[in-house]
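Methods: example folding runs. The two proteins below were folded one after another, and each record is reproduced exactly as written to the output file, sequence line first and structure-token line second.
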Amino acid sequence: RTTRSSAPVRRLSWNMPYHVAHHLFPSVPFHALAALDTEIAGHLPKACNGYLAFHANFLKTLPSAA
């Protein structure tokens, strides 16, 4: 998953919001992941707009425990 996040979050997490790019090309250094993500974006599913949006969408996919 790739998650759009703020610059402070990207900096604190060494650009790991670009998780898909990191796993597809693990030899790419963390500071180049944003550029790599731009290059491969057309081949990836749409990214979520932040961690809260990702988790909200994920929770919608879980079956209810009724």
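Second run, written to the same file directly after the first:
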Amino acid sequence: MLAKGFLTVRNILVAIDDCEATTIASPIMERAIELACAFSSKVWILHIVPHPGQPPFNVDSKLLRREVASEFRHEHELLQHLAQCLRNRDIDATALLKEGVIIKTILKESDQLDIDLIILGCNRHGLLYGALMDVTEQGLLSACTRPIMFVPISFYTPDPLR
């Protein structure tokens, strides 16, 4: 039994921005694994893709639909692989690929899945950048009532020869 005031984390939503660059060893996934193991949580891995919209007048709409569908299949496979890696570690995990506006979709999925913690990757930028740009992290902070954990995205790749 938890003491009053302590947070239980039964459901974790990990919002993935870049499926290609996210692996089981990525900082965002490492934090999710640590928390899921500590709290016996279910992990939902969410990637949101924008609505394709109307193709330009000089692009064949059927060709564009095939290309978009191919890209969605590829991203879905990457998400499924991440979820399987978590399941291999005895973590209950489900991959979700949704289409929509990022902040609205994260909020909607968080409500539908009764999420206790949202984990997001964030870029390290200064205050000026944040003041000038409409950043997902800041937009979500202002709109979300659930706890959010920001994990810095590292762009440093160690030299394998060192």
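Comment on the second run: The beta strands are 11-16, 42-49, 93-99, 117-122, 148-152.
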